[in-house]
Structure formats: C-alpha cells, structure tokens
Amino acid sequence: MKEQDFLLSSYEYDLPESSVAQHPAADRDGSRLAVVPRLSGDIQWTDFSRLAAHLPAGAVLVANNSKVFPARLLGRKPTGGQVEFLLLTPLPLVQEQAGVAPGWKQAQVEGLAKASRGPRPGERVDFGPKMHLTVTGQGEFGRIFGELSWTGGLTQRVDEQGVLPLPPYIQRAVDQADVSRYQTLHARADKAGSVAAPTAGLHFTPKVREELQARGIEWYEATLYVGYGTFSPVRTADIRKHGMHREYLELPEETVQAVLRAKEEKRPVIAVGTTSARILEGVAQARGGLTAWSGSTDIFIIPGYEFQVVDGLITNFHLPKSTLLMLVSALAGRERMLTAYQEALARGFRFFSYGDAMLLL
Questions:
Q1: pTM attached to this predicted model
Q2: Which residues contact 122 (CB under 8 A, 6 or more apart)?
Q3: Which string of DSSP letters, residue by residue, matches 98-123?
Q4: Which of 9, 114, 199, 285 has its CA at a distance of 20 to 30 angstroms from the CA of residue 232?
Q5: Is residue 193 within 8 Å of 177, Cβ to Cβ?
Q6: 47-76 residue pLDDT tens
Q7: Distance from C-alpha of 357 to C-alpha of 48, rounded to nearest angstrom
C-alpha cells in the first residue's frame, strides 16, 4: 500500500454536476456498464442488459433484499417549528411496547433531525395526530434518540406520514416514479428498513435474471438495512481514523451454503453492491469465517483489506471521498478506480444512485 491510499484527499475527483443522474434510466437494465478487470487489462464499455455475457458461468451472485421505507418524516414542535426527522431504526427491528395511553404503542428509536433549532431532550415532535416523538438524547451531526409513540400499526403510520428519502444529490422533489424505481425488484416487504437503496440492484430486471440463470449463474440473497454509515462523510484526513456506524444484517443459511460451495469449487462469488460486500465480509470478520448470522457490522473496507469472501463486485459510481469509493479501491486499487472513473466521465456515464454501473471482476 502507498501512504496516499490512506489520505482522504486521495479520493477526490472532479465531477461535473451534469454527470450526477437526477432521474433513473428509461428502463432498469438500460443503464450502461463498465467491465473493469481488477488487476490488469482493458476496460470494456457496454450495457447492463449484457451483464450475463461478462460473468463466468457458475458464478454466485449475492444481492441485498432490503427495502427502502418512507423514513423521512416531516413534523412540528408544539411551538410550530418544523422538524425533518430521518428515522434510522429499521422497522423490523423496532421493539414496540405498550404505551402510556390506551391504544398507543411506543419504542426507542434513533434518527437524524434537521430543524432551525433543536429539537432538544424533552421536546416533542408531532407527525400528525397519530404519531409523535419525544426526544431523549442528542448525538453528533444532528443525530438524536427518542421515544416514538403511535396508534395502530407502525408501518401504516410511517407510510401515511413518511416520504421516500432520496439522496441529497438528487436535487428535486420525490415523484411517483421514485416510489417504484428507487426500489429493487427483489426487495422484500418484510425487510423494509433501509434509508437508502442498495443501488447496484436497481438495474436488475426479470430478463436479466433469466439470462443469468440460463448461463448457470446462481442468485442468492441476504439483508443489510442501509443506514447512516453509508452516507456519513469521512471527516478525518487519515481515513484509518474514521469510524463506521453500525448496520444490521442477516445472512441466511441457504446463502452461506451456496457461497461455501462456490469457494470450494473455485467459482467466483460476486457481491451485488457494496452493501452485499459488507454483509459477506462483515460476517466473515465477525465470526472468523462465513456462517449464518444476524447482527450488526461496522466493517470499514479500505485499501490493504484482504477480502475473505468476495471475488467480484457489481456497483454504481460513488461520491468523491466516500467510504464506498474506498471500498471499491480496496478491491481493484485506488489509482485504477480513479482512472476508470475519469474515463467513464469522458464517455458520458451517469453517476450515483440513478446512474450507470460497473462490474469489477
């Protein structure tokens, strides 16, 4: 490793605003694809619809089946001040209890608050007449902890009051198309807990999946509830001093066995997205090997990390100085990644969540 690999400034690159995708492609698999050999060789510039042709037969793909929920809640304090609250606690992990008043339930949650002032511990934020939050504590950078109270079903209340949390670099209001397109087709309703989409999975269509199956490429799933750690900026000049926030994952036995068979038979394991890479590597790191497991990971993958499970990665193009750019640099090399990014920009590729894709293999 070079010392530059550990400097935050080494992950900067010039990105024109016009290259940031503000809307999805007309078709899910209509995005473009850069096929980047990890070690050496020329980059191939193609279309995502041709993904199967660039994957070796017998490869195992592992995708994140978590679902984005309308986590952006708009509320008011009793004084009338507006509060925007991003609920970070995944709905399946909310531990509800009986509330003080009949018919009400409550649970401890955490999130990010944006307001002209506060809210501070002890203050209440109302999200309509059937749900409110009482703040119990504050953390850094707008993070707050509180007691959420509601009547009826929590999912119903959040669906009524919440808005899909598009990333801040998408500089427009949420529209009806986002409700379906900022969601993978394999997202499971019982896994509604992510505040950002596992965007590499957005490109997959039934046709692409059929072509993968026809080539003997296997598809398995796991869950990681995408949270604050994905978009929290690195604030240390030396990236080794950055601390990742923990995210909850679930790796089922079926996926574990498929991955272990592939490793035994020397077939590549390819993560569909950086979240899937963090699932596989996070479990291997936490458990001393791959095993079925549910728990939290704060794994931070940067150059110098030795991958235990992942051989390849399908991913989008990531923000400058982001932990995700550092992860892909760990897999294929920082200089190689930045060179590929510059060439992609020159070819008119679209970046970030609704942008084009890359295959590292």
A1: 0.96
A2: 134, 135
A3: E-SSTTEEEEEEEEEEEESS---TT-
A4: 285
A5: no
A6: 999 999 999 999 999 999 999 999 999 999
A7: 7
